[in-house]
């Protein structure tokens, strides 16, 4: 999977070209992005970089009751066999909403083709969705005609050593990842990548909420927690004060922690993708250090089989 991480930046341009060929030309009130797991990450990235759009992220079997024919529904499933996304797709078609599919194959793509629904067909690469986020985000941007971004400052190779070092700092402890409200999805990305790739517990939260409850867990110095703080020096003064106060508590309680500064001087998309790639490297090397396969998700497959 190291090669998949290294080629991540090139995925975006390829995905954008595919999506742009399926660009939605109509008007819409809201955008509902239906997806699960790694396939949901592109929509979450879009929500970070384009807060001006009315984006609703839907990870359920049905669309919300508020969705109408005036709304655009984009169903994203890397495999094309995600049960929840297929069900949401069926619901959208039944309601006569405009629908576009992003997928590399499977049942979802077959249905869309059969029903003359536009499909942004992803490259048929044998990697998990979390390693193919660049393709799907690029396609999403192309479909929506969002081209005012650049990825010149994304260098996956340059982040590898830092990711390996953070993995060594985590060791066998339980990561708890925190960021400000603006960057909350980044904390979530770290958590889920560590869960799936390294097969260990990890948790996430965001400021200022965690300062009113979760901060209490650090009262016990013997908790095997390793806090990871995602910090952007251009963030609001209030957010920076929250992080500063948390650092003071962690120092007082003698916790080892890691501060990851979100790069400044670049676009929000570049900040997000660089941080995501760093999380990929960290979880990849953490898996290697723990002697587990970062690709295997046996329990996810068992979960699916037990539902049938």
Automatic annotation (TrEMBL):
GO biological process, one term: carbohydrate derivative metabolic process
Keyword Isomerase found: yes
GO terms of molecular function: carbohydrate derivative binding; glucose-6-phosphate isomerase activity; mannose-6-phosphate isomerase activity
Sorted UniProt keywords: Isomerase
Coiled-coil segments on the chain, per record: none
Gene3D superfamilies the record matches: Glucose-6-phosphate isomerase like protein, domain 1
Stated name of the protein: SIS domain-containing protein
Organism, as annotated: Candidatus Yanofskybacteria bacterium RIFCSPLOWO2_02_FULL_44_18
């Amino acid at each position: 999977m190291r090669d998949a991480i290294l080629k991540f930046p090139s995925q975006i341009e390829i995905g954008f070209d595919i999506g742009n060929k399926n660009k939605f030309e109509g008007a819409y009130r809201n955008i509902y992005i239906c997806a699960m797991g790694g396939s949901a990450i592109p929509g979450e990235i879009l929500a970070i970089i384009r807060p001006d759009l009315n984006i609703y992220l839907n990870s359920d079997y049905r669309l919300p009751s508020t969705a109408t024919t005036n709304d655009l529904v984009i169903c994203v499933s890397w495999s094309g066999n995600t049960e929840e996304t297929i069900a949401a797709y069926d619901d959208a078609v039944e309601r006569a909403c405009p629908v576009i599919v992003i997928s590399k194959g499977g049942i979802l793509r077959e249905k869309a083709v059969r029903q003359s629904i536009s499909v942004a067909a992803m490259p048929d690469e044998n990697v998990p969705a979390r390693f193919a986020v660049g393709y799907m985000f690029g396609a999403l941007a192309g479909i929506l005609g969002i081209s005012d971004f650049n990825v010149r400052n994304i260098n996956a190779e340059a982040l590898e050593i830092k990711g390996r070092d953070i993995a060594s700092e985590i060791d066998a402890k339980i990561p708890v990842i925190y960021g400000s409200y603006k960057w909350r999805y980044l904390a979530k990305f770290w958590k889920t990548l560590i869960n799936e790739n390294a097969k260990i517990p990890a948790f996430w939260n965001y400021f200022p909420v965690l300062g009113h409850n979760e901060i209490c867990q650090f009262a016990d110095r013997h908790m095997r927690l390793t806090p990871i703080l995602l910090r952007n020096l251009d963030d609001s003064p209030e957010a920076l004060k929250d992080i500063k106060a948390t650092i003071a508590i962690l120092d007082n309680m003698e916790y080892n922690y890691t501060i990851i500064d979100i790069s400044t001087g670049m676009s929000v998309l570049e900040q997000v993708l660089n941080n995501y790639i760093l999380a990929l490297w960290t979880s990849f090397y953490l898996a290697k250090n723990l002697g587990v396969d970062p690709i295997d998700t046996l329990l996810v497959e068992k979960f699916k089989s037990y539902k049938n």
